[in-house]
Amino acid sequence: MPNSADYSEKIPNNVELHEDRRLQRALESWQPNFLNWWESMGPTLPTRDVYLRTAVNVGREGWAHFGHVAMKDYRWGIFLAEHDRDRRIGFGEHKDEPVWQQVPGEYRAALQRLIVIQGDTEPASVEQQRNLGATAPSLYDMRNLFQVNVEEGRHLWAMVYLLHAYFGREGRAEAEELLHRNSGSEDSPRILGAFNEETTDWLSFFMFTYFTDRDGKYQLGTLKESAFDPLSRTCEFMLKEESHHMFVGTTGIDRIVERTVALMIEHDSDDVVAHGGIPLPVIQKYLNFHYSVSLDLFGSETSTNVANYFTAGLKGRWAEERRRDDHRLTSESIMVDAITDGQIGQTEVAALVGLNTDLRREYISDCQNGVNRWNRTLEQAGMTARLHLPHIAFNRKVGAFSGIEATPGGELIAAAEWEAHKGRWLPTDIDKAHVRSLMQPVHERGKIAGWIAPPRHGINDKPFDYTYVHLP
User: Fold this and answer.
1) Which of 10, 35, 306, 348 would suit a FRET pair with 443, their CA atoms being 20 to 30 Å apart?
2) What is the pLDDT of residues 236-279, one digit of tens each?
3) How is residue 211 annotated by DSSP?
4) What is the spatial distance between Cα 48 and Cα 71, in angstroms, rounded to a whole number?
5) β-pairing, 64-69 with 333-340?
């Protein structure tokens, strides 16, 4: 199979789609529905064109092309990473057997469900972010938003291809449903809770791309290990694009912290509200919310479903090949977070049922890296304040801590005390109103809003004052 994409086709692809006319026709009939969804639920800000990268090759070098593209003409396509003919299953009861090129009948329903859930998150985030272009703090940031959006659209294509190619009539029906559910809809919401939350401002967008897209990185990382080779290779390529989304979040929050610090120093005051900035305590509240909501995406601390997925070879662990164990885990154990004797603690369970906890801990460690980065900005400016990840039990709606209330420091408190004090820890209506009030668009080349610092580097070696977006 070639590495490069065939852009002469109606649907760009590197999967030799022209060799399967039935599949090609099915996907070409789905394509107008996707474009209708993009027009009705995608970005609302009119643009002439945007400086976007488009995938052209799945190899290690030169995989993307940059250029100005009208978003409605963006060439969404289907790309699988390079085929390793010698690849073997790396874990579970089928370990060391050849990977599967077709779906084993006994795992059909479980694999389809995993693909549908992953697929459902992709258009959801586009829907959540659809109005943000109108309040972009710079053309650079507007371009980054739209790059994230078109790549989430391509990730939807990735999952729809698998549903059409390998799951027959049921798969085609599920592909249609991916366009019929909508983020925040009362009648047909998205499957996972975090993808029904509003993203009404750019601080939320940067937190989402840092914390929630990072969850996506870890979920894709487990599916990349899958014994079902087309899913594995699809996710491996998606991870290339996902890294940019997290870069947008990491550097976006970094730039907000940098600007807040500059305003604090300039005015010799912690109160930057009067000077058009976002106070550090408000940044911390947004961090608390998005981090805790994203922790819930990993599910309960223990899960027999995930144990079964691992044993069957459907879904591995993060960086499975680096693990120093037998990759079967039938006799291993793990300590998982729990409420024990009325206190926040841990309990020992079989490693197989604790795989959600294993993945969540990898994620938490990764999240801390960004917090350390933002704190270096504070430290270098001589500030004593620091940002921090709240305790794992804070503001949880899924799993062991869903029935209790805890402070960001991990202290168990009564429900009444939580209600009395949650405004100190989570964004209040006043906090949100202030942040929204700052979201005044800056659409002039080389200019930027006063609540965020400019980036240190532009896109693809272009300067910050490059015309990243041409508006009507």
Assistant:
1) 35
2) 999 988 999 999 999 999 999 999 999 999 999 999 999 999 99
3) I
4) 8
5) unpaired
Burial of 219 (C-beta count, 10 Å sphere; 0-12/13-18/19+): buried
CB 42 within 8 A of CB 149: yes
Amino acid at position 57, single letter: N
Spatial contact of 232 and 226, defined as CB atoms under 8 Å apart: yes
Which of 471, 470, 437, 469 has the alpha carbon at shortest distance from 203?
A: 437
How far is residue 344 from each of residues 298, 303, 348, 394, 400, measured CA to CA in Å? 19, 19, 14, 11, 9
What is residue 165's DSSP assignment? Answer: H
Cα distance between residue 197 and residue 191, in whole Å? 12
CA distance 411 to 433: 29
For the segment 275-316, what is each residue's pLDDT rounded down to a tens digit? 999 999 999 999 999 999 999 999 999 999 999 999 999 999
E strand or H helix at 240, and its extent? helix 229-267
Burial 241-259 (b: 16+ CB within 10 A, else e): bbebbbebbbbbbbbbbbb
Architecture of domain 17-470: Orthogonal Bundle (1.10)
Q: What is the per-residue pLDDT for 5?
A: 77
pTM of the full predicted structure?
0.96
Alpha helices in 268-347 (DSSP H): 280-296, 304-312
